[in-house]
Amino acid sequence: DLPARVRIHEVGARDGLQNEKTAVPTEVKAEFIRRLADAGLTTIEATSFVHPKWVPQLADAEQLFPLVKDIPGVALPVLVPNRRGLDRALALGAERVAVFASASESFARANLNRSLEESLGGYEPVVRHAKESGLQVRGYVSMCFGDPWEGAVPLHQVAAVCAALKDMGCDELSLGDTIGVATPGHVLELLNLLNEEGVPTNQIGVHFHDTYGQALANTYAALEHGVTTIDASAGGLGGCPYAKSATGNLATEDLVWMLHGLGIETGVDLGRLTATSVWMAEQLGRPSPSRTVRALSHK
Ligand code: HMG
Ligand code: MG
């Protein structure tokens, strides 16, 4: 049975804009987030409190967060890579944070400048402090289905990273197909293994990339398994800097089109969301790669 309702975890303002070459002005980001909220999205990842040299696109986190933090009815998770990031987020009154680990050794080193084991060890006190401070914590796991340097990533290794994040106190996990190589059978294998290893489906979100055109098929497999938290990026913003294809995150519009077609509630107004992505594409100076945005805006 498919779920009756799905919660979309919107990542366009963070995962999308972190990959843009153009520096988006802070006020445009704030307007983007307000419009996403207006379109009915209730979980909108706002920014990252990472090192500004690593991700200059999000270096305005201190300026942006206060502009959006009081939008009624909207949760605004932010990424934190370490205690320094968590302290910056706490100082601004963030209520939800996300740590981001990797299922592969190579990406841990590329993204966090640490080994996989060091990165998990480093997150332990960060997650503990976040929980003690009353925050909700999400644990991202990148490269769950393949890695650009290592190729296949063994499922038991992915499950071990997921279990470690859950055991340290993460409320929710997000399984990232960072280079978009997953196919539906692979998704089901991982979800089944996670359940066997004690991670319940209601603590699992999925984060698919459409690099190989598989994101919706993978989403459908996850829905059939019972997953109700799905990450997506408005207008399909954001690629993966390590994948050669221009396509990146699953577009929220493509996801909503499928979910509504299946009779699954999202609370999202597709017309308003599409208008937002068309507006954002104008700000960025290039069209959205989302098929649904194109179809609906060329009527
Ligand atoms: P490092 O250079 O190893 O850090 O970076 P360090 O601990 O050695 O510290 C070096 C300097 O950075 C120090 O300053 C620290 O204070 C400062 P100095 O003493 O030299 O003046 N520093 C900070 N400054 C501001 N905010 C901080 C912070 N931490 C240290 N939080 C670090 C290690 C983890 C910080 C760095 O590698 C980093 O910021 N990485 C972030 C990378 C990133 O954001 N990647 C994208 C997100 S993950 C992703 O996109 C995947 C996902 O979307 C899922 C998917 O799509 O599949 C989630
Ligand atoms: Mg992504």
TrEMBL record:
Q: What is its EC number?
A: 4.1.3.4
Keywords per UniProt: Lyase, Metal-binding
List the GO biological process terms.
Answer: ketone body biosynthetic process; L-leucine catabolic process
Which InterPro entries does the annotation name?
A: Aldolase_TIM, HMGL, PYR_CT
Pfam families, per database record: HMGL-like
The molecular function terms in GO held by this entry are:
hydroxymethylglutaryl-CoA lyase activity; metal ion binding
Limits of the Pyruvate carboxyltransferase domain: 6-274
Query: Out of the domains of life, which is the source?
Result: Bacteria
PROSITE patterns per record: PYR_CT
Q: Does the keyword Transport apply?
A: no
Similarity comment: family membership: Belongs to the HMG-CoA lyase family.
Concerning NCBIfam families, the annotation shows: PRK05692.1 (NF004283)
From the Swiss-Prot or TrEMBL record, give the protein name: Hydroxymethylglutaryl-CoA lyase
Q: Which organism is it from?
A: Streptomyces broussonetiae
